[in-house]
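Lay summary. Proteins are chains of building blocks that fold into shapes, and those shapes determine what they do. In this project we predict the shape from the chain. Here is one chain we studied, written as its sequence of building blocks.
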Amino acid sequence: MRAPFLYRKSIPFFYDKSPVEFQQDRYERYDSMVIRQTAIHLSDELWKQYPLQPVLDFAQPYLPSAPQTITELGCSVGRWIATLSQQYPAAKCWGLDFSYQLLKQAHGFWIEQKEISLDSTRLGFSSINNLNGHAISNLNFGLAKAADLPFADNSQDLVVHSFLLDRVADPTAALREHFRVLSPKGLLIFITPLNFQEAALWSDYYPAIKIHQLLTKLGFSILDWREDLEIIEPLDARGNAVVWKTIGVVAQK
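And here is the predicted shape, written in a compact code that computers can read:
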């Protein structure tokens, strides 16, 4: 595994993120985006369920029996990779993201067992939720880019991500990198709404069949392909929500 450029409060940086990149990254705005991500992924009480449970449910039937290495890309505050690390306590698990503030929240909650006092009044809720942290010993978090991972070739048994592929600058480079780090017969599982932010990406990667063709070209075997996965992301106490029409993919190296 590649050595990090630096550490910031126990978070290794595998990418030398510049001040300009920090400024341009909206997820570095702690007072808004981190609170929202924490509410969505860690405070099930607010919504009476985990809103992104369909992501975990889609992946579950395909998870390998005893993976030794697991990585989630774009891990946000760490819900999915923490769930996997608890399910596979013998595996070495990494949650990677490009935003330091999200990683700091994830590391504190899932590894350092820090309690989070979540003020969700801006979402219309009247109370402050106290979320009890965890101390998961086989879990690590680090800052990296999806197209430049710090792992050796053929080293990861399982790579997962959700709501990431349409947010990277070069999806082809990212998927090629996933293929590089996956072990033989390793699995890539991801869910994406293909909600691209640039016209060129829409042209290159939509409709979804273009993603299927790209994965096959890179050398993946498609084990499952779903274009009817609906994810409902709640917005506030009133019940407003965003409905994401996503594709779910299970691919094997």
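What the prediction tells us: The longest strand covers residues 221-234.
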